[in-house]
Amino acid sequence: MIPMRLAFFAQCTVLLLALFACSLVSLISWSAIPISAMDAVQALYNMNNDSIAQHIVHDLRLPRVLIGIMVGANLAAAGVIMQALTQNPLASPSVLGINAGAALGMALVSTIAPWFGLLGTSFAAIIGGGTAWALVMLLGSAWRGGNEHGRLVLAGVAISALCAALTKAVIIMEEDQASGVLTWLAGSLSDARWQTFDAFWPFCVAGLLGAILMAPTLNLLQLGDDNARNLGVSLMWIKLGGSFLVLLLVGSAISSVGAIGFVGLLIPHMARILIGQDHRKFLPVAMLLGACLVVLSDTLSRAIIYPAETPAGAILALIGAPFFIYLVRKRTL
Amino acid sequence: MMASRSLPFLLFVLLGLLVANLMFGAVSIPFNQMLEGFQSGNEHYFTLHEYRLPRTILAMLVGAMMALAGALVQGVIRNPLASPDVLGVSHGAGLAAVIYMTFFPTADVRWLPEVALIGSFIAAITLWWLCGQHSSTIKLAITGVALAALYASSVDFLMLVKPLEINNALLWLTGSLWGRGWSQLSMLLPWLLLVPAALGLAKPLNLIHLGDDSAISLGIKANKLRLVALAVAVGLTASCVAICGPIGFLGLVAPHLTRKLVGGRHQILLPSTMLVGAVLLLLADLVARTIDPPIELPAGIMTAIIGAPYFLWLLLRTK
């Protein structure tokens, strides 16, 4: 028992160190103006002189890295919860339509009612994502707890296609507001500033804490609906509460940086391979891994066609889609 | 007997949409002026002859060919959720076309249908290889959808990485008929040869529905027939995608609607599904052009707005 626990802490420490290294690389590399590691570290706590490098690190890079960490943790936690709730290894925010629904909500509000501002669009994202998720769960007949995994995924894909088409139509028809929505849709961290960070972190902390508190209950769900019910678990409340958490995590993440996909699909599987099935352990590990992945792909997004930027969402989709195929293939549906 | 009433009705609707497509747009042209407009020298001659007429013909042909491809695929693999766009074949064609245009920016666009054909064959073979021959309905659809997502994200990635070369490719691949004219129409024409080939498969396709064993005892080589029919469907899809981009859900919806109207006999189903496909795409393009002029929506958006709910409904009914 003790070595097991030690191993878990060792793994967490390694992941934390890895996250730290990724963040540092992201702070100092691929900049138009050379930044030394010294400057970067100094800019973290104070700016002793007015060097441009330190300003870049403090005003542009640092919020970007922090938001990347939070987005990665949020999406990974959401993926874990969704896979536990639906008992479906293919469940994730992007596959089951939450991303596309949130994008539609954002696009509608920011083109038709732009005076709502940042908070309004965040709520629009959460409502849009929630509507899409509810539709997918209803149409995919997931509430009844059937084991029709494929149906749920296909319902998600169809809802995604519908939302994406409506989003495109809205953007084309309201061209004045379109450019902002378009960059947002691609899922990029390039516009992440302290302002976004300030609006985002309370939701993020609340969501992640909620997820960790929920971990023991998620373990019970794995025993199957009937067994969980016999152990005195109220399935309806777990599913409602879990859905609410997912919406909080995903809605806040993608209203701050856009529709970044496939983190929620990829990371839970990687964490499960590392740690096993116990949610109390593999949920925190998934959060750390998700943070690493998003910070890494954001760094890559600056490097790949330097000095221009590729949205991190595009890179994640290129990594995530083959993995999706692999998962489909591995399972006997 | 159902067909005897449905077919004249479809023809009538098609004719009405044809006239409407010529009349309406950024500028509406009244009917009698439209008729006169085809004489050269008339004030509307340029609009009608250079823009609306080729575009309308192209919409009819593309709609008909995509619907026919969908009917062939559904007929062969007996899977209600299948169609070239759900199975990722359309997006494979689109990816090949984008790769061709980004990496060889000086190359001739005339070869685009052939390049798209190669791409969609690779996509079809990949799907076959991933799924094997006897997969369940839903697994086949999910693998196709996942592959389509992979191709679509690769296209997005290429567009972001090579923004300069891509303008040309974007014009081709938005799932739209915008800016298409006589030259694109002439590129599509040779591929129309696949239509009689597809219609010729009607009778064996009926027999294959009796089950493989009965078909074989009636002298049909089931596997060979499948390969031929799928190859024809892939060719039809690729040539359309090379010209208009992946117009989603058309190949899925049109055969289903047609089956409701005229029943499942392929001799009637195949030609009727072409009519329905033409009607659907003409309608989608008309709505897309006239909903908020002078802004044009891609027709692919309209087909997705109709097609995605229909797909969900089919999914609910699939056992």
Written overview of the protein:
- The complex is a heterodimer of chains A (333) and B (319).
- With 333 residues, chain A is an all-alpha fold.
- Chain A has helices spanning 2-28, 37-45, 52-86, 98-112, 117-139, 149-173, 178-186, 194-221, 225-230, 235-257, 263-275, 279-303, 312-330.
- The longest helix of chain A is centred in the N-terminal third of the chain and has 35 residues, at 52-86.
- Chain A starts with a helix and ends with a helix.
- The model of chain A has no long low-confidence stretch (mean pLDDT 82).
- Chain B is mostly helical and 319 residues long.
- The mean pLDDT of chain B is 84.
- The radius of gyration of chain B is 20 Å and the shape is globular.
- Chain B has 15 helices and no strands.
- Chain B starts with a helix and ends with a helix.
- Helices cover 75% and strands 0% of the residues of chain B.
- Chain B has helices at 2-23, 31-36, 45-77, 89-103, 112-131, 137-161, 163-172, 182-188, 194-200, 202-208, 212-217, 222-244, 250-262, 266-290, 299-317.
- The A-B interface holds A 90, 139, 148, 150-151, 153-155, 157-159, 161-162, 164-166, 168-169, 172-173, 175, 186, 304-305, 310-311, 314-315, 317-318, 321-322, 324-325, 328-329, 333 and B 81, 130, 136, 138-139, 141-143, 145-147, 149-150, 153-154, 156-157, 160-161, 248-249, 291-292, 295-298, 300-301, 304-305, 307-309, 311-312, 315-316, 318.
